[in-house]
Amino acid sequence: MSQSVTRPNNLNAFWMPFTANRQFKETPRMLVAADGMYYQSEDGRQILDGTAGLWCCNAGHGRPKIIEAVQKQVAELDYAPAFQMGHPKVFELASELCEISPEPMNHVFFTNSGSESVETALKMAIAYHRVKGDASRTRLIGRERGYHGVNFGGISVGGIVSNRKHFGTLLGGVDHIRHTHDIERNAFTRGLPQHGAELADDLERLVALHDASTIAAVIVEPMAGSTGVLMPPVGYLQRLRDICDKHGILLIFDEVITGFGRMGGAFSPDVFGVVPDIMTTAKGLTSGVIPMGAVFVRDEIHDAFMTGPEHLIEFFHGYTYSGNPVACAAGLGTLETYREEGLLTRATELGPYWEDALHSLKGLPHVIDIRNFGLIGAIELEPMPGAPTKRAFTAFLEAFERNVLIRTTGDIIALSPPLIVEKSQIDDLFGVLADVLKNLD
Ligand code: PXG
Ligand code: PLP
Description:
Number of strands: 15
Low-confidence stretches: none
Strand content: 15-25%
Strand order of the largest sheet: 4-10-9-8-7-5-6
Radius of gyration: 22 Å
CATH architecture of the largest domain: 3-Layer(aba) Sandwich
Number of helices: 16
Shape: globular
CATH superfamily of the largest domain: Type I PLP-dependent aspartate aminotransferase-like (Major domain)
Helix content: 25-40%
CATH topology of the largest domain: Aspartate Aminotransferase, domain 2
Number of domains: 2
Largest sheet: 7 strands, mixed
Bound molecules: 3-[O-phosphonopyridoxyl]--amino-benzoic acid, pyridoxal-5'-phosphate
């Protein structure tokens, strides 16, 4: 990997997403190439990728099978209309995905991002009850601190105040159960926290308030990523599942981060044992190479729509780029890479080593909690008085100076390396982080 690229002479036009634009443009951090576990910065440094891009490059960078599949596909069939037409790769990818999805989730709907997967799932849930003759079930329940992308449905069921407060009244008919973060009882837990399963009972409170007959679905992240890596307490997800079953409420797992190997199995049900009714995914589906998302549903949900005259559209929803051929090729190349290299279960094998390395940071200045599961880790820092987020953001800038890419949210450092990470690279990552933390104000 060697790339020499001249910096564009004008950074003004591009309004950057979820970025401190003015700070960035003052001191830009440009990536110009990537290979395996490393990015290359514009000044020629090799930067260890501690975040798999944005939790998406699970197969690592510059992977030959994915490159080859994309190159071949774009030359052969660049685009096919997504509505009322098909192409072979989209059916092939759907079948392969349903081979690794939990039973009985044997149908998949394609989108272009996690946010679109979430909108699709919420609409499917409401429409499902309607086609079953239960049209009063329209309410959606999310969870405090949840992240479900940035579209209106997603921020409505989401629970991160900065993502919501600027955008008016959002969707009506939405409520939230409590989040599960509890440092007092669970600080420095390795793996799943022992305390908090009872927080699932908060759903009963909302059922008592709204009546189950008005509730379509509950959406949660099995492991809440964006909000700072909150693991589900032992027994929590099963309790949610039981309450949903009792009241006929659909359970949606947002697996945009937890899908495709991050937790040590293909999807969270493989490691936590709780199967939802609908599952939203994106990111690792194509290892970040081409935007793509997928919504998995149980047979019963899919089949409920397959009624009425056969020439009529069953579900009035879809995107111009649903199942784009080049994205499908990237997905097939990615699944092949995962299969050949055993990446979907690698986080289970490496988990104990990762956990020990991460928890070795306990005791460093400002560290108030450390959390982990699979190949995910979080280090929560005590916020600077009067300047929340500043301490973690400084750690991010310092780590980048020292050739390591980390991610921060609030005052939490989140780590999620590509699943090809080697032990020596885990050592490098935590070596640099320890140095950075020792020197933080
Ligand atoms: N649901 C979940 C659970 C997510 O984590 C989305 C939906 C939205 O996906 P798209 O593809 O529309 O961005 C996400 C995305 C971070 C970070 O650093 C997390 C996400 C995206 C970017 C950064 O925490 N999650
Ligand atoms: N806006 C307009 C005017 C459109 O015509 C379309 C699609 O045809 C869209 C939005 C939706 O775009 P997409 O299908 O890429 O989500």
